[in-house]
Specification:
Elements: E1 2-5, E2 8-11, E3 21-25, E4 48-52, E5 61-64, E6 83-85, E7 91-92, E8 97-100, E9 103-106, E10 111-112, H1 114-123, H2 155-171, H3 175-191, H4 198-211, H5 217-239, E11 248-254, E12 257-263, H6 273-276, H7 279-295, H8 304-332
Parallel strand pairs: 1-3, 2-4, 3-5, 5-6
Antiparallel strand pairs: 7-10, 8-9, 11-12
Helix pairs in contact: 2-3, 3-4, 5-7, 5-8, 7-8
Length: 334
């Protein structure tokens, strides 16, 4: 079965598909023997909208160029074999900046499932939608049973939906397209207090905060620059000695034999903190920090505190650099 649609909404709930079925948005007006215009539909959107695939065996289903903004996937079978072709539109995250107390924030741009919208709207305590009022793009969309918790999917259910759809994209060799589904799966696991242990949720919080689950290179690079800036300040203030210590050689004469010993004194740091923050010391600290992250060894004489600062830098900052590279790799992987 192939359905080519315009100006149509399809509800496939509990349809029994025993053979391949395709739902395709037709890009141009249909041509008939007699002229058939679309003037009566002026002002409406010509896309084909799929409202639900609940209870459907998706192994036989192909959706092409369809609008899935409000599509319900919960309860479908074999979602990991569903094929999404062309430009299938999913619901975006809320747009714009928001306030949580006094702190501004915004939701990261990604494709989301309607089920996540419904759970987040209920979890945020959003009021029920007003009939006749168009939904706002700045908030999560409420579900048909909002705010009933018994009929709204919980994070564990939504994570399973994201996992299956991610596998469908990965099996189709569309790794960049699967990135948003991986992000959504990790988000649901991070918020799942029932099935995800507290320690695992703590790791997911850190993974999200540092790099957006390895998918946001800008976030990892921002943390890397912040960490390197802190390292430079600490090295300038406490890690670099006043000057490189000169080696001293001492000798002992015993008869006709001379014994020479060369030693280097420990680096010393004196003077007030304000005198340590100079351009020359900052430039030297920058070289030490960059060498520690990229080349793993600076070769610079450091005080005892500076040695520990450099060791910490060599441990943590390459991890942030690797997370940034992982995020870029995830977006361009073939």
């Amino acid at each position: 079965m192939t359905m080519r649609l315009r100006y149509a909404a399809v509800d496939l709930s509990h349809a029994v598909l025993s053979a391949p079925a395709a739902v395709t948005a037709h890009p141009a007006p249909f041509a008939y023997r007699a002229p058939s215009g679309e003037s009566l539909l002026a002002g409406a959107a010509p896309q084909a909208t799929v409202q639900s695939v609940q209870g459907v065996d998706a192994a036989h289903l192909v959706l092409t160029d369809t609008d899935l903004t409000k599509c319900l996937f919960s309860g479908a079978f074999h979602l990991d074999q569903l094929r999404l072709e062309g430009r299938c539109t999913l619901a975006p995250a809320p747009a714009g900046w928001h306030l949580r107390g006094i702190w501004p924030y915004r939701w990261t741009r990604r494709r989301t499932l309607a089920e996540e919208h419904h759970w987040r709207a209920r979890n945020a305590g959003q009021p029920a939608p007003v009939a006749g009022r168009p939904p706002s793009a700045r908030v999560w969309s409420e579900g048909p049973h909002h705010p009933d918790p018994g009929l709204t999917p919980d994070p564990e259910d939504v994570a399973a939906l994201y996992r299956q759809l991610r596998k469908a994209f990965e099996d189709g060799k569309n790794e960049p397209g699967a990135a948003d589904f991986y992000y959504g799966e990790m988000e649901m696991r991070r918020h799942d207090r029932a099935s995800t242990p507290r320690g695992e949720r703590g790791l997911l919080w850190g993974y999200w905060l540092l790099s957006g689950y390895g998918l946001r290179s800008s976030r990892a690079l921002a943390w890397l620059l912040a960490a390197m800036s802190v390292t430079i300040l600490l090295l300038s203030g406490f890690g670099l000695p006043d000057h490189d210590p000169d080696p001293a050689t001492t000798g002992t004469l015993r008869g006709s034999a001379i014994s020479l010993t060369t030693s280097s004194p420990d680096p010393s740091l004196r003077g007030s903190l304000s005198r340590r923050m100079t351009a020359a010391r900052t430039e030297k600290a920058t070289r030490v920090a960059v060498n520690s992250v990229v080349f793993r060894s600076s070769g610079q004489n450091l005080t005892t505190a500076g040695t520990y600062i450099e060791m910490t830098s060599r441990l943590l900052e390459p991890i942030l650099l690797a997370l940034a590279a992982l995020a870029v790799r995830g977006r361009i992987k073939r």
